Amino acid sequence: MPRTAISVFHVVPTRLLLVLAALILGALLASQAAFAEFEGEAVYTEDGVALGGTDPVAYFTQGEPVQGSAEFNAEYMGATWHFASAEHRDLFTGNPERYAPQYGGFCAFGVAVPKYKISTVAEAWTIVDGKLYLNYSLPTQTRWEADIPGHIAAADATWPNLK
Predict the structure, then answer these.
(1) Looking at the structure, do residues 17 and 54 belong to the same domain, yes or no?
(2) Strands of 69-76's sheet, edge to edge?
(3) Contact 100, 56 (CB under 8 A)
(4) Exposed (0-12), middle (13-18) or buried (19+): which is 152, by Cβ within 10 Å?
(5) Alpha helix (H) residue ranges in 108-147
(6) What is the pLDDT of residues 57-91, one digit of tens each?
(7) What is the DSSP letter of 5?
(8) SS3 of 101, please?
(9) Domain check: are 30 and 84 in the same one?
(10) What total number of domains does the chain contain?
């Protein structure tokens, strides 16, 4: 009798470990697929719209993210960009390198550290030396801010080689 009880306890942890290992492997494969989602893209887009429709000029002129409108749009680097006004659209088209975010709007920390193209949120942003940098989340933004010059140097070195 005690032998049966012992063998059951040995089998359950083994099965549990196998299930946990399968879950971990699945999560790792899913995360790799998420990173591959942007392979070949030069600009972070949602449904073909750069930055999910956030107006990149507003970061500079209003100091905050502002949702753009399809009414005011422009094409740049193979993506459609939305703007809050005709004035913002015209500023952008007159000098897109000035207003377009670095690394195509992908997560600056992601390009620097894990060296992947990762999506961004409009609220996680900073302007450094006149350049716009976006990040995946506010906690990621905090990590980015711990060493902005180092992360920019790492991302600048990585970005030309990301596909």
Answers:
(1) no
(2) 45-46, 49-50, 79-83, 69-76
(3) yes
(4) buried
(5) 108-112, 138-145
(6) 999 999 999 999 999 999 999 999 999 999 999 99
(7) H
(8) coil
(9) no
(10) 2
Amino acid 137 reads S
Residue whose tokens read 């600048």: 156
Residue in this structure with the two tokens 């196998």, named with its chain if needed: 18
Per-residue pLDDT of 119-134, as tens digits, reads 999 999 999 999 999 9
One domain for residues 58 and 13: no
CA-to-CA separations, 25 to 19, 20, 22, 36, in angstroms, rounded: 10, 9, 5, 17
> Whole-angstrom Cα distance, residue 147 to residue 7?
53
Q: How far apart are CA 28 and CA 129, in angstroms?
A: 36
With contact defined as beta carbons under 8 Å apart, do 77 and 100 qualify? Answer: yes
Residues 30 and 98 in one domain: no
Same domain, 30 and 104: no
Q: Radius of gyration over alpha carbons of the chain, in Å? A: 22
| Amino acid at position 77, single letter | M
Helices (H) and strands (E) in the chain, counts: 7, 6
Q: Model-level pTM greater than 0.90?
A: no
Mean pLDDT lowest among 29-33, 111-115, 132-136: 29-33
Residue from 136, 75, 82 nearest 109 by CA:
136
Closest CA to 104 of 145, 134, 66: 134
